[in-house]
């Protein structure tokens, strides 16, 4: 592995001095590549996700997914980064990488952990001051061994959070002075400034990352203390930093996380809704309140853009998002953002998205057709429909099997139709490219998946979902087996070779 990707060119110049020759070897250092390369050997039947922590202003994709088998990813990178490597059944690994790194990620079929080569597994912290803060924090935070370790399991990650932790209130009551020292130390770390040196790189980049990591640790420890103590003083002082009101947070490595907490604790005054399946944050209200906390300027503009993105993430009504987007445009008149946002989140297809009758489908070229048109065009053929999304782990797991199924029935009296329920058009297109669907004729994004009576009547409430239509265009299997299920071949052949 070439850890720093420095290339050296040997320039040999032959100079004649009288009867003899002298060889001069000049060493020239080539520019370093602004990228990191991942070589993946995934022997499981589920994808691996590589997640980068990005700033508020960073337009680079934050999450990358690799299918089973061998894969290579080359990702732009301009400074040392923190990445999280995750898989639905393997504990996540954190790795520190920088430009020019080559990282090998292997997941054996029966493995319980990733086998990693390259990058850095850890970064040393700042000596005695950090050790002192760690000891004070551990003094006041206790674990309850009566419970099992906490674990997160999601479509693309499994994280062991350890034992539940809580504040040692008895110690706080008897020894508040040391607790105050802990809070003061965390606040000091949060306000610590890096020493910048113009024109320097290399080790100084790693030092900047180290300080950023220590500040992030201090911030989230303060958030824990705030949650346990409900202390207004901790809240006020933690968010008193100018980081939250000037533009330095825009390019901070962990600025998105800081800003999310600022929205919850300051802009929304700690109000969130935990009654739903996921914690709900009202970014519509946040959008309205932001000017009360952030002065006019680039930070407020980007903060409102982040709020618009989060409205989509929390699946706010289409019309309400459009209203907020119109208000944004009246204020900032940013046609580039408008174009990107409307294309990404399908706001240019308002009529088709809101329509209840039938199913409207977007093609990669931007044209729209109806599902009924597919049935009419392909009358006489069996149609196997795969309802999926880029964020659906079981859907992605099935894609290699779907490809084998297509190959096995190529040229026969059957077509395969792929309907994505993604909200984000760019996520759909990236997944289509990665899972080899871009060359298929019948690959679509379902525009009115949420509003369609057709979807509601079929009770498509979860994905993946597979449907089979016979040669007359009649739905004969409303909940068919997926491509991983061996029984799917028998079922498909039943309809392919059916006698009229």
Fraction of residues in helix: 25-40%
- Oligomeric nature of the chains: single chain
- For the report, how would you describe the main beta sheet? 7 strands, mixed
- Tell me, briefly, the overall form: globular
Could you give the count of β-strands? 21
Total domain modules:
3
Overall pLDDT metric: 83
Low-pLDDT ranges: 1-31, 196-202
Structural class: alpha+beta
Number of helices: 16
Distance between the termini: 62 Å
Q: What does the radius of gyration come to?
A: 27 Å
Proportion of β residues? 15-25%
Strand order of the largest sheet: 16-15-19-18-17-20-21
Domain Thioredoxin: 332-500
Protein name: Thioredoxin domain-containing protein
Subcellular location: Cell envelope
InterPro entries: Redoxin, Thioredoxin-like_sf, Thioredoxin_domain, Thioredoxin_ResA/DsbE_sf
Name a few traits of the molecule:
single chain, 500 residues, alpha+beta, Immunoglobulin-like, Glutaredoxin, 3 domains, 7-stranded mixed β-sheet, 4-stranded mixed β-sheet, 21 strands, 37% helix, globular, disordered N terminus, Thioredoxin_domain
Describe the protein:
- The chain has 500 residues and is an alpha+beta fold.
- The chain has three domains: 121 residues, Immunoglobulin-like (Sandwich), CATH 2.60.40; 175 residues, no CATH class; 141 residues, Glutaredoxin.
- The chain has 16 helices and 21 strands.
- It has a seven-stranded mixed sheet. It has a four-stranded mixed sheet with strand order 6-3-9-10, with no helix packed on it.
- Helix 3 runs antiparallel to helix 4.
- The radius of gyration is 27 Å and the shape is globular.
């Amino acid at each position: 592995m070439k850890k720093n990707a420095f290339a050296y060119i040997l320039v040999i110049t032959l100079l004649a001095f009288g009867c003899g020759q002298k060889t001069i070897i000049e060493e020239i250092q080539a520019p370093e590549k602004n990228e990191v390369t991942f070589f993946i050997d995934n022997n499981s039947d589920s994808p691996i996700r590589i997640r980068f922590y990005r700033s508020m202003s960073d337009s680079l994709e934050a999450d990358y997914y690799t299918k089973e088998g061998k894969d290579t990813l080359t990702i732009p990178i301009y400074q040392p980064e923190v990445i999280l490597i995750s898989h639905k059944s393997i504990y996540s690994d954190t790795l520190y990488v920088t430009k020019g790194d080559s990282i090998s990620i292997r997941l054996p079929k029966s493995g319980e952990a990733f086998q990693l080569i390259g990058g850095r597994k850890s970064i040393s912290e700042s000596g005695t001051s950090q050790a002192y803060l760690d000891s004070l924090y551990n003094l006041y935070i206790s674990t309850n061994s009566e419970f099992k370790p906490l674990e997160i399991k999601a479509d693309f990650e499994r994280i062991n959070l350890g034992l539940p932790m809580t504040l040692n209130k008895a110690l706080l009551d008897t020894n508040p002075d040391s607790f105050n020292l802990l809070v003061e130390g965390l606040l000091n770390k949060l306000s610590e400034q890096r020493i910048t040196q113009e024109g320097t790189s290399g080790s100084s980049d790693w030092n900047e990352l180290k300080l950023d990591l220590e500040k992030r640790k201090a911030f989230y420890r303060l958030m824990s203390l705030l949650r346990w103590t409900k202390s207004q003083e901790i809240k006020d002082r933690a968010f008193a930093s100018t980081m939250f009101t000037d533009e330095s947070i825009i390019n901070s490595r962990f600025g998105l996380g800081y800003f999310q907490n600022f929205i919850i604790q300051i802009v929304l005054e700690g109000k969130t809704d935990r009654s739903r399946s996921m914690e709900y944050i009202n970014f519509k209200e946040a959008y309205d309140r932001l000017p009360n906390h952030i002065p006019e300027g680039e930070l407020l503009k980007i903060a409102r853009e982040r709020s618009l993105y989060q409205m989509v993430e929390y699946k706010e009504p289409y019309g309400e998002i459009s209203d907020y987007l119109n208000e944004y445009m009246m204020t900032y008149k940013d046609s580039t953002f408008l174009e990107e946002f409307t294309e990404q989140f399908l706001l240019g297809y308002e009529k088709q998205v809101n329509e209840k009758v039938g199913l409207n489908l977007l093609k990669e070229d931007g044209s729209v057709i109806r599902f009924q048109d597919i049935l009419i065009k392909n009358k006489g053929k069996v149609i196997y429909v795969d309802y999926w999304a880029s964020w659906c782990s079981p859907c992605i797991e099935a894609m290699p099997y779907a490809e084998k199924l297509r190959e096995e029935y190529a040229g026969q009296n059957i077509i395969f139709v792929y309907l994505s329920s993604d909200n984000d058009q760019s996520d759909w297109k990236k997944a289509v490219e990665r899972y080899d669907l871009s060359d298929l004729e019948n690959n679509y994004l379902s525009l009115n998946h949420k509003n369609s009576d057709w979807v509601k009547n079929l009770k498509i409430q979860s994905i993946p979902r597979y449907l089979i239509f016979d040669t007359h265009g009649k739905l004969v299997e409303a909940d068919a087996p997926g491509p991983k299920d061996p029984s799917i071949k028998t079922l498909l052949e039943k309809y392919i070779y059916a006698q009229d």
